[in-house]
Design a protein that fits this description.
By secondary structure, the chain is α/β, with parallel strands linked by helices. Helix content is 36%, strand content 25%. The chain contains ten helices and 14 strands. Helix 3 (61-81) runs parallel beside helix 4. The protein is globular and about 60 Å long.
Amino acid sequence: MKGQIEKKEYFEDNVLPFKNEFEKDVYEGLRSSPKHLKSKYFYDSTGDEIFQEIMKLPEYYLTNSEFEILQTYKNKIGNLLEHLAPFLLVDLGAGDAKKTKVILQHFIDKEMDFTYVPVDISPDAIHNVTLTLAETLPDLAVSGISGDYMNALNSLPRDQNKVILFLGSSIGNFTKEETLGFLKGISLKMNPNDLLITGFDLKKDPEIILAAYNDRKGITAQFNLNLLRRINRELDANFDLSLFEHYPSYHQEEGEARSALVSLQEQQVFISALDLHIDLAGGEKIHTEISRKFDFEEIEDLARASGFRVMENLTDSKKYFTNSIWRKKA
């Protein structure tokens, strides 16, 4: 399918006295108890580059595990969704689409009728992936959308068949309540029999999990600290990054890997754009990310509760990760 969807940028309505959602979330997060910042704001242009380095780390098993799944099962995936053609292949949080290219090339080789729709909160990521794919996969119809996932899905033709990808382990960045709400929201944007393919990091040896968020080179620490650097740059704040330390932990009973930035001393930070003074005690944490791990029973329960039926759980050879393929219930 060579038709193009109009490229748009979407942002939530500015209903509070903030210039954008970033200002609002930083203001509310740093005034909360405990303090927190949303992990989606890791991904500015610098954060995108740092995350590319993280994905190359030997400790960060998630990327290689998912690559293995997509490479091993690309034909099976193609067969499962071929009946939907022509369809939109909507890639939520596409990034550089490095993993997705495995199946994109396979679908092109099979002459499947589809349009690739990468969606990412980072405009830089959409700009770069669009240019890269034009060079590397010139026969691919691409229409990128920068902005909020739900708004992006709302912009798509309702009557067109869709296969939605939510790869990586981003589903684990939500709380239990947020996860169910997010999946129900996606379900509402889909037609009966449309497919959703989601990446789930599986429960495993706690040491393997913790190492993925605490690499020896300290690149994950820089990824977290870059969030403060972004606030300094975009909101005219005066965070001193040397006064913070990355603190990862894994809570096995809850199945949650958590990341935080710890204040190394008592200090006050001023965010000029928000006219906001933040007091931090020595040892106080700013929570930056949660990464939940799953078992197959939890995945089955999530699918059923959000309006889907599990078709396949595709795993890597070590069973570290799964790409779960769900069909929207009629």
